[in-house]
Amino acid sequence: MTPVIHLQDVGVRLGGREILHGITADINANQFIGVFGPNGAGKSTLMRCLLGLIPPSAGEVTLFGKPPGRANELIGYMPQVRALFENVALSARALVAATVGGTHWGVPPFFSSRKRRLSAGQAGESLNEVDRVLALAGAEEYADRPFAQLSGGEKQRIMLAQALVGNPKLLILDEPLISLDPKHQARMIDTVHHIQHETGATVLFVAHDINPLIRVMDRVLYVAGGGASIGPVESVISEESLSKLYGMHMLVVRAEGRIFIVATEGNVTEAEHQHA
Q1: Quick check: 80 and 174 in contact, CB under 8 A?
Q2: What is d(CA 41, CA 133) in angstroms, rounded to the nearest whole number?
Q3: Which of 28, 58, 106, 238 has the fewest CB atoms inside 10 Å of its own CB, making it the most exposed?
Q4: 58: helix, coil or strand?
Q5: Other CB atoms within 10 Å distance of the CB of residue 76
Q6: For residues 105 and 108, what is the distance between their CA atoms, to the nearest angstrom?
Q7: Burial code of 15-39, b = ≥16 C-beta within 10 A, e = fewer?
Q8: Sheet harboring 202-206: ordered strands across?
């Protein structure tokens, strides 16, 4: 069976600097993959490489058996940077509707200078799709309010609804827990886990803290030191595995069902690697 994502000895260079190297991984259908690593490790860069926004400098990347960019209709993407729509006066529903029928990453066609005219049938299908994804994201209650007036957690759900348009088979969610308190983090995780079971999509869930996701993940993709390791939590989040990635001794502490990762030598501060 063709994997949803295939990476073979993948490297990425930006501005002449090597960001990632030697990344090899296969990810199959209907898996929930947590993507972790310290700030600046290259997690978002790897996600953008999968989307075809950044070309690999080495190795092979395929999604659904195609090169990056050739299978975009099968991918839903929730970017980490969401400032573009922070102060828009449009309703949340209108922002979701703007993505229906889109074929490229970036500003939705709603904001382009070229206006689209939809037939009555197309308009009806568009409304049905918007209602469907808002319900999946748990955002119907406030969908008709101005997006700028929504709370941080509500905005996150609207952006999740955008990513669900078109019933994608792969969801790439870059830091969907950012700025959420623990209660709303748990709710977002439960929502994404429910979506995975309802749609059968594969999920790449990028996050800083591994602990809230332990109960739902099938495997972990940990990015550090320019490389990456993928596998079950127990094998990847281990002192041996992480020390190899970082190139220095790493301490993994498990206490009361939580995991703490700490650098024990060198110039790396504890705060950069502690997941708590």
Answers
A1: yes
A2: 32
A3: 106
A4: strand
A5: 25
A6: 8
A7: eeeebbbebebebeeebbbbbbbbe
A8: 75-78, 170-174, 202-206, 32-36, 219-224, 227-231
Reported pTM? 0.87
Answer whether 37's CB lies under 8 Å from 60's CB: no
C-alpha to C-alpha distance for 241 and 260, rounded to whole angstroms: 14
Q: Cα(92)–Cα(230) distance, rounded to whole angstroms? A: 36
Dig out the tokens for 170 from the structure. Answer: 């792969």
Measured CA to CA, the distance from residue 70 to residue 74 in angstroms comes to 9
Tokens 């809230």 locate to: 212
Mean pLDDT by 10 residues, the chain (276 residues): 94 95 96 95 95 96 94 91 68 89 53 42 68 95 92 92 95 94 95 96 96 96 96 95 93 92 62 40
DSSP string, 211-260: GGGTTT-SEEEEEETTEEEEE-HHHHSSHHHHHHHHTS-EEEEEETTEEE
User: Residue 53: which residues within 8 A CB-CB, separation 6 or more?
Assistant: 105
What is the model's pLDDT at position 112?
40
Contact 222, 252 (CB under 8 A): no
pLDDT for res 257? 86
Confidence at residue 82, expressed as pLDDT on a 0 to 100 scale: 63
Give 3-state DSSP helix, strand, coil % of the chain, rounded to 5. 35, 25, 40
- The pLDDT of residue 127 is 76
Q: How far is 61 from 8, CA to CA, in rounded Å? A: 7
